[in-house]
Design goal:
The complex is a heterodimer of chains A (409) and B (81). With 409 residues, chain A is of the alpha/beta class. Helices cover 34% and strands 20% of the residues of chain A. Chain A has an eleven-stranded mixed sheet with strand order 5-4-6-8-1-9-16-15-10-11-13, sandwiched between helices. Chain A has a three-stranded mixed sheet with strand order 2-3-7. In chain A, strands 12-14 form a two-stranded antiparallel ribbon. The longest helix of chain A has 17 residues. The two termini of chain A are 15 Å apart. With 81 residues, chain B is mainly α. Helices cover 59% and strands 0% of the residues of chain B. The longest helix of chain B is centred in the first third of the chain and has 16 residues. Classes of the chains: A alpha/beta (409), B mainly alpha (81).
Chain lengths: 409, 81
Amino acid sequence: MEKIAITGLGIISPSGIDKRVFWANIKAGRSAVEKIERFDASLYPSRIAGQVRELDGYSNVSSRLLKKIDLFSHMALVASELCLEDAKINLSDENLKRVGIFMGNAIGGWLYAETELRDMYLEGREGVSPFMASAWFPAAPQGQISINYGIKGFSKTIVADRASSLMAIGYAARTIIRGKCDFILAGGMEAPVTPYALLCCNTSGMLTENNDHPQSAYRPFDKNRDGLAIAEGAGVLTLEPQSRIAKRGAHVYANIIGYGTTTDAVNRIEPNPDAKQLARAIKIALDDAGLGPKDIDYICADGAGSQIGDATETKAIKDAFGEYAKSVIVSAPKSIYGNMLGASGVLDVITTVLAMENEMVPPTINYETPDPACDLNYCLNKAQKKVIKNACIINRGRGGINCVLILQK
Amino acid sequence: MSTQTDIESKLKSIFKKVLDIEETEIVPGAKLDESLDIDSTEMVEISVVIKKELGVSLKDNELKKTHSFNDIVGILKTKTS
């Protein structure tokens, strides 16, 4: 595919909001997963999460607007502002009918929704805030960003479980190639640390229950893994075509050069044990990039931390990469700050471009016991020095969703 | 029976609470959309708080006819007299 440049980053994460702080925490493998204390989570099987601590310090959103929007929209607005600043794009100089917004998330704005449902139960219909109508739904952040900046171009919200934001980025890149937008703000946001959202995540059976050890609970590829720790946050990228970056002399973090997506068509929750469709998504993305397996220097894995998730991801990488699978370095840096569900993909992209910039592979943390079913060349516990020219990012979601993006420095 | 000043004062307090704005921004002739930038959901929230605090129900067709702070004061004055 035609190269699409990533020229700006905006990060809202438990590991930091400033991109230098974020990278320092990732490089050090410093866990940001903690016990949930903002509400009583004591009866939940999994009650730990990566939580954003310093959003207000970066927010210029008015208190009047904050009453009307959910936390996931707030994080998306702040991430967008940071991203545009980072990309040095002044929207007053742009044709706003040619600017797009592509955002992904898995569960919508439940902090708002469940508060209002509680009010409906206690006070009846009139107890429900009218702001509910525009606050909770998955496309609300896209709408808020567009209103905030007057952006009027072709835009989409993608809901594809944990693959949502990676899919939004892939779709955005394709949209620029088709000439529908001059540039696009692409990424995702998720706010699952609320009583009802946490319950839904728990009942899916995908969460770790190692509550006594929050910082070491999420352990992708370790034999004793028992699921992921959820996280809240957002990430936004500016995506631009080569013609535009040449004109404005933009800094390019990396280019998106390949994208592939498939579905398992087998199970509502678990991935297909044969992993063939994930392998096919990887092959499609590599073909799209015009690369072979040996060209890939780093794989940023989905790392669901479940027994079947990590084993099938390993199987798919072996299938797609052949004999080179044992050599290419693999990690799941989201083990450091938690799994941001629908926003995990954009954070994987941001982590990977920072890894490229810093010539260092980010680690999978908490790895202690090898598993014969997960026997790739993982970057374990400590960052490793390495020049990364080409990287492959894998995201998966319930419902058998597979999504792969190829980046090039 | 409430006086015009009473109603204005109570409505200003409701506007301030719902919209998170300073009372000085709410002048009697303030236009709901142009001056105060009130959207449809905020208008509904204002009517809900009016009902809770003043015990006055504003119907949808009454709300649609209001264009300024003074228009709402007028309706409240009629309904509370």
